[in-house]
Amino acid sequence: MIVSHISSILVAVCLSATLGGKVEPDVPPLYSMTNTLTGDVLVVCTSKGISEGLMRGYNFNENIFCGFASSNKSTSSRMGKNYTDEQYRLKVYMNSLNNKTITVASDHGESMARKHGYDTLLFEDGWIWKAQNTTQRLPLTQYVCNQRNATIFILASTPQSVYNATHVHNCSFGWVEGFTDEAWVSWPSAPPVDLPFKQSLKFAPEVEFAFGVYSHNARAFAARSLSKSVQPASPPPPPPAPLGGADTWFPSFGGPHGRFYSTFNDGTVWNVSVMSDQRVTNTSAVQGYAVGCGDPLNITLIRVGSVTAGVSPFYKGRYSSANAFVDGVWYQGTYALDDHPPNVGWCVLGGFISFRTSLDEGLTWKEPTPQLQAANDTLFGEAGTWDVKVKFGAPHIVDHGTDNQHAPGKRLYMISHASNRTGPTEGWINGDTVYLTRTRTSPSPNTINNKESWEFWGGGSSGWVSSLQQAQPLFEWFQRTGVTTSVYVEQLSIFLTIVSCPGEDGYFATYILESEQLTGPFYLVAYLADFGPIAYEVTMPSKWIQVDKEAGVLDAWLSFSAWPHVREMTPPSGAYLWVLQKVRLKLTLPAES
Length: 593
Description:
mainly beta; six-stranded antiparallel sheet
């Protein structure tokens, strides 16, 4: 959603889920970057380090994986001093065929290096240090070993004289987190004073984050086998697959194999590059899609592709939103965006266009609207401008479980932010209201794009109504609605509605509401100010929600993307790609007997 060149940022931070292991809090993954002009090499640990490296002229090549830093507590004596801190040993291997080198910091890293032709151990020198029993973030700094004329990486707090090393000017990258076990870090709720919701009595007013337990899923190994009933249009690339990343991931789960089916926009995944902003392409917009499987720490992509569909001259962007896989049919919706100079940043919602459908898991698609014929050539006949607002600009499918199994009558429900005020921005992340619509029956490719097949929530006294004009908001909050998603939690028989919206000082906020009915009333679970601090398109996939009533916790995974060129990421897992971050909500009601 943000910029086209950002996909290069995604390359390194996603490998941990694809090279055989989950991301342990005390085992930071290491990736190397090379300055093609100077030949200098950097090792980074986080998306912040990657972002700074890119800004300083460092890029990735095929040798980016450096392994994991293994934890070894030991006492060493150097320069007459004993060091008992936790240490990560660094080794440098060379490929004897091309003389390229790679830095590793664990047995796993060594194994991967040798597997990829790095057969010669040049030297073993340098450490990554972190102090024991600390939660302090420590900067990872680059040094040059004077005796060996090689780059090593140690913490800034470690005396460089121990290694006879010279600090490389202005090259401090990444962080090594000081947690040695799965650490739950509380993010207290801090809502604005004009909060229109009462506090939930079911949940504590906070979200706990499993620090270091997350995955970055822009890159994945190609699947080695596929169902015999579904073959790819062309063989997937051999592992390791081409690199890349994108945002706008809205996974839906279904089918006999329990796969996920997701959209993505503005970036590159495998060898598929997409750009949904026609201001960049100067032609039609392109939206991406992906099929995959696995759990959050072990994601495997099976198929990646794209569909071209435009909106000019009426609008300037066409992005993915509503996405669902139900009973073998993949429904993928798109919506129109525009700007209004001097106001930019997709400040005009044009309207929800239509659903394309696939009956073969994305091998082929039926696109009913390859090109808009008019500004109101949309599913509900809406056409947004700076002065004219729409009710269903960027709707999202309510997650009722795998194959939509918990939806009443297996209807599709869509929830959408909007604005009913003249003047305030109604953009991709801005609004004042939230609306709800649903299909009259279970969805079908033959009826999904008929306006008459949908009905709208008309408020408590009216219930469901046939006329869009009669639709009433689920709730209102001035300039505090934005990308809105909702998930049904079967174990608790409640809905969690998640909104990412503008916050303070140019950053974003995310808040979570709970309700026993999809139509409300809604109660605040937590308001996370400056989440990301620019995180967006936040969802909580139902497939990965686990409730332990006896322990009083709901464990889940937040799915989101974040814009990286800002201050330090909060949480550190934030990156411009598909992020899955483990979180926990605390139940306050007593366990059932």
